[in-house]
Design brief:
about 325 residues; 5-stranded antiparallel beta sheet; 27 strands; about 40% strand; mainly beta; 4-stranded antiparallel beta sheet
Length: about 325
């Protein structure tokens, strides 16, 4: 069969001069819907285990061993469910808490020098714990959140209020993703359904189709220019698998299903639109799977996988502008 142009992609660990070490008291109990931590091209934010939902914010421009003493933190006031940086403002961090509120924090120029106690804004509207939050990819000041109350809400941050509430879910929402052009929003839910919304048109799903069978967790990401959806989930026997759907034909079910392995944690997918390569690993895994995704059969072309020495506790990618293009680095 055909082979991928990127089958010889190699994972490389950067030199120790670029590492941040001696990270203490990390929270390893963030929900499966959360990537574990978040990063932008300037800094990373890591949930800590201590009471009150503390978050460490570390500058990537200051690598090395962290002091044994406590570092300045954000005092979120409640346990962290998910957190994400604003793609249009590298100093704004959105944090979803278990108290059904979203807090927006502003990091001072040059990084945290002292403990932050007061958020810039607090968004209230959900009635149950929030699962995940995502910034809009194209428009600044737009944030979407999903919650145990089985609603998806869209927030206008400049006004500090909810502008839309999407309905139609009957069980826990595992994952949601904006389309690359920001016009559509896809969700995958514990009720075994994938739903596609056009928020500007309706608060009900535009279409829905069958998702992964297993109710243990799932993630989804848009691929191939926003025409297809890739979903990682489980089958009824707990095998991890990836499924490819045509976004305009969800009711027809998946075009292709590929079983990978048996493991407890949900695979976190990250898609590189320039090469059409998807990276997948789970918390507690040591292996990162790589596949090139194509819109024609066989749909998934296997590339070299990358194995690390220690299990992953979280997994995120930096913006493309961080790549060393002279080294042919693409993610």
């Amino acid at each position: 069969g055909p082979s991928s142009r990127f089958r010889h992609a190699q994972g490389r660990v950067l030199h120790r001069d670029h590492h941040l070490t001696n990270l203490r008291g990390l929270s390893l109990t963030t929900p499966g819907e959360c990537d574990g931590f978040c990063a932008n091209h300037q800094r990373i934010a890591l949930p800590l285990l201590s009471a009150g939902g503390q978050i460490a914010v570390l500058e990537l421009s200051k690598p090395g061993r962290l002091p044994d003493a406590a570092v300045p933190t954000i005092q979120n006031g409640t346990a962290v469910a998910d957190l994400t940086w604003d793609p249009f403002d590298p100093r704004r961090l959105a944090v979803a808490g278990e108290d059904a509120r979203i807090r927006l924090w502003r990091i001072p120029e040059g990084g945290l020098q002292e403990t932050l106690q007061e958020p810039e804004a607090v968004l209230q509207g959900h009635t149950e714990k929030i699962y995940s939050i995502r910034f809009h990819p194209m428009a600044s000041d737009l944030l979407v959140s999903s919650s145990y109350d089985m609603t998806v809400r869209i927030w206008e941050l400049s006004a500090g209020q909810e502008v839309l509430c999407l309905q139609g879910h009957t069980d826990q929402i595992f994952s949601m993703a904006w389309s690359p052009d920001g016009k559509k929003l896809a969700t995958v839910s514990k009720d075994g359904r994938i739903r596609l919304y056009e928020p500007r048109r309706s608060s009900q799903p535009q279409q829905e189709g069958p998702g992964p069978e297993g109710g243990r967790g799932a993630r989804l990401v848009w691929v191939c220019g926003g025409d297809y959806l890739l979903v990682s989930g489980f089958d009824s026997r707990s095998e991890r698998r990836i499924l490819l759907y045509r976004a305009q034909a969800l009711p027809e079910g998946p075009l292709s299903v590929l079983g990978l392995d048996v493991a407890p944690s949900t695979l976190l997918p990250f898609y590189d639109e320039d090469t059409s390569v998807v990276f997948l690993t789970g918390k507690g895994d040591t292996r990162v799977f790589l596949y090139e995704v194509t819109p024609e059969p066989p749909y998934f072309l296997e590339c070299n996988s990358f194995t690390s020495n220690e299990p992953h506790k979280g997994f995120v990618f930096l913006p493309k502008t961080a790549c060393e293009v002279r080294e042919v680095e693409f993610a």
